[in-house]
Amino acid sequence: MRVLIVEDETTLAHTLARSLQEEGYAADIAYDGEEGVAFTETVVYDLLILDLMLPRLDGMEVIRRLRNQRIKVPVLMLTARDTVADKVKGLDAGADDYLTKPFALDELLARVRALLRRESQNKSILLQVGDLIMDTVAHQVRRDDREINLTNKEYALLEYLMRNPNRVLSRAQIAEHVWDYDFSGLSNIVDVYVRYLRRKLDDNFEPKLLYTIRGSGYCLREPGES
Question: Taking all residues of the chain, what is their mean pLDDT, rounded to a whole number?
Answer without folding.
Answer: 86
